[in-house]
Design brief:
The chain is of the alpha+beta class and 450 residues long. It contains six helices and 16 strands. The longest helix is centred in the first third of the chain and has 57 residues.
């Protein structure tokens, strides 16, 4: 700034000299020349004052800008320290609302006879809801942590029906109390050829899985089509561990094994185990087919439940353990169509049901310009064992049919009308009144994804 002032002063002196020279040349008097010089100096002083004021304003702006830059750099430094916490963090939330009705509930009011009590009426329409929050944190390429919290209330018609396999797998009556349903850590070894999982886990996420019939929030609602009815699952999600093998040399195969504490009380963790193993074969990978067109899974599994079980023909005689095996398959036929099937068996000496089978299929709404819509249908049976029938129980095969249409309203809301038919519920071929041998259940599900 000092150099600029010197420059201005030299300019003024130069003007003074020039003015004097010009004045003498014109023959002006010294007073006139001095007056002109005073006016010229005053103009230059005014310009200098304006210039200094402008410089002062620019200096203030520069200071303000530097403060802003410093504040942003401090914020970036702070975020760089926090960033790793949020990197790889995924949060998913959803709410499921289900309304179901029936004109012929065969166990309304728990079989009560007081007709003045509305709960004992055959015609019912009830509701339920559940809210899920999933938090997932990825740790580079070597691991992942997962927490699943859930709250729900209501069971729709499940308390009003006397059946082998009920109608609302999403019903999780927790009296609006928040539960941590899953909390586990997963570690990867050898380029993810081996996956180790441990914590509070859900066995249904590892055994008897299926692409088209394994999610009650978006697929079939009935228990029969969510999982096999002849798997003696642990009492609840609880302590357990799982190993998944996906060797590169045999990339068309997956093998996973599961261990869980059976009674879910977190005591004596290894006394009464639930054990399961599942082998999955993926033909599209094996034969290098287009997985978008021909993707499929063919799973075979075995399981063992180590808790004491009362024998069907003699409830005072206990046998340690129950066991069984099954198949769960799904196959794409085109980009529009897909089919699935299940079959399973368990020890009939300690189980009401011996055999389960189900099959079904789905198609997208591509043919009517609704690519994200799905229409699906499935049929299956829960089949009692001979021991159950020999003990004097009704033992006809319970048959289920379910149809739903999933209508994608927008990216956050899906509405699914749902119909279910149940023949010979709970093994009873004909009810006492002869009018309830088939139960019709109608309903609608609303799924909100955040």
């Amino acid at each position: 700034m000092r150099s600029k002032k010197v420059s201005v002063m030299l300019t003024v002196l130069g003007l003074l000299f020039l003015s004097c020279s010009t004045g003498f040349a014109k023959g002006e008097s010294i007073e006139d020349q001095l007056t002109e010089l005073k006016q010229l100096v005053q103009k230059q002083n005014k310009k200098i004052a304006e210039f200094e004021k402008r410089l002062e304003g620019q200096e203030k702006k520069a200071v303000t800008q530097q403060r802003t830059i410093d504040a942003r750099e401090d914020e970036m430094d702070r975020l760089q320290g926090v960033g790793p916490v949020f990197e790889g963090l995924n949060i998913n939330a959803g709410a499921t609302f289900v309304g179901q009705g029936t004109p012929n509930a065969n166990n309304a009011g728990g079989g009560g006879t007081d007709l003045s009590d509305h709960s004992s009426e055959d015609s019912r329409f009830d509701g339920s809801y559940s809210v899920d929050l999933e938090v997932e944190k990825e740790f580079d390429d070597y691991g992942m942590a997962f927490v699943h919290m859930e709250v729900g209330q209501g069971d729709t018609l499940e308390g009003d029906l006397n059946v082998f396999s009920n109608v609302n797998r999403d019903a999780g009556e927790s009296t609006a109390h928040v539960d941590v349903t899953e909390a586990w850590y997963e570690h990867y070894l050898f380029d993810q050829q081996i996956t180790l999982t441990a914590g509070k886990i859900d066995a249904t996420g590892f055994i008897d899985t299926n692409e088209y019939a394994n999610d009650e929030c978006s697929q079939f609602l009935g228990h029969m089509f969510r999982n096999s009815d002849v798997i003696d699952w642990p009492d609840d999600n609880n302590f357990g561990a799982r190993i998944l093998l996906t060797p590169e040399i045999l990339n068309a195969f997956e093998l996973e094994t599961v261990y869980m504490e059976e009674d879910a009380d977190w005591e004596n963790l290894f006394d009464e185990p639930f054990l399961g193993a599942q082998l999955n074969f993926m033909p599209a990978v094996a034969f290098d087919y287009d997985e978008e067109m021909w993707g499929g899974n063919y799973r075979v599994y075995v399981w063992y439940n180590g808790a004491p079980h009362a024998k069907i023909e003699n409830a005072d005689d206990f046998e340690r353990g129950n066991y069984g095996f099954g198949l769960s398959c799904d196959q794409k036929l085109t980009e529009v169509f897909g089919v699935f099937g299940r079959v399973g068996w368990q020890n009939p000496e300690v189980s009401n049901l011996e055999t389960h089978w189900s099959l079904g299929g789905q198609m997208t709404g591509s043919y009517w310009d609704r690519e994200e819509d799905i229409v699906a249908i499935a049929v299956g049976q829960a089949i009692p064992g001979d021991e159950y029938g020999d003990a004097g129980n009704p033992h006809d095969n319970e048959t289920h049919l379910e149809v739903y249409y999933s209508y994608k309203v927008n990216e956050h809301l899906t509405l699914s009308p749902d119909m279910q038919f149940i023949w010979d519920p709970n093994g009873v071929g004909d009810s006492a009144d002869g009018d309830n041998d088939c139960i019709f259940v109608y309903g609608i599900r609303g799924q909100i994804d955040f």
